[in-house]
Amino acid sequence: MLFNKDMLRLYAITDRECLRGRDIVSQVEQAVLGGATIIQLRDKGLSQSEVIDTAKRLLPVCHSFGVPLIVNDDYTAALESGADGVHVGAEDASVAEIRRIAGEGFIIGATAKTVSQALLAQEQGADYLGVGAVFPSPTKTNAIRITPQQLTEICGSVHIPAVAIGGINRENVHVIKGCGQCGIAVVSAVFAAEDVKGAAADMRKAAEEVCS
Questions:
Q1: Measuring CA to CA, which residue among 199, 140, 208 is closest to residue 174?
Q2: DSSP character for 145?
Q3: Which residues pair with 11 in a beta bridge?
Q4: Residue 123 in contact with residue 162, Cβ under 8 Å?
Q5: Contact 84, 98 (CB under 8 A)
Q6: What is the topology classification, in CATH, of domain 5-210?
Q7: Strand runs (DSSP E) across 169-208, as ranges?
Q8: Contact 172, 160 (CB under 8 A)
Q9: Cα–Cα nearest to 177, from 164, 159, 166
Q10: What is the pLDDT of residues 177-203, one digit of tens each?
Q11: Where are the domains of the chain?
Q12: Residue 200: in which H helix or E strand, if any?
């Protein structure tokens, strides 16, 4: 799938605890119907084979709406499942290594908490950045926080698009308006909702209001 920055507008990340036993495929479909423009499969409790199997189940849903599927951390699982890309942090395989193995056309996102990390990811061939945590995150309680000013600096330091992540919801999203991100990444704001489709629609509207 050919990547473009519009795919990042509402970046929805799955979470098993948020789903509370609900079927991941049906809930991802609801998120996409509501306006999610990209889906990341993130579940550190799954084995690699389970990640591959789950990604294969999600792909037909995502692709039927033209939405890319990204796998968190494990580029091998992403490649074996046929997913569109991977998102990696500083502790995972380097963007350069993944690009060398996966080639062009495979979407690679990288977490950046500093300008230097952002520049390195861009140099190594990342397609986009995930920048944060911009607010306290209920799903990553130990995540390092960054300020709106730092978000602005990081977004402005690179020419690849960036998505803001970390504890974003309808009540606080206005704080990052004008910081330069082209999208927002959310977990609980969509998947913890009783009405996932409605929550996604609400967050998509918010994303349109605060992203450039």
A1: 208
A2: P
A3: 38, 185
A4: no
A5: no
A6: TIM Barrel (3.20.20)
A7: 183-186
A8: no
A9: 164
A10: 999 999 999 999 999 999 999 999 999
A11: 5-210
A12: helix 196-210
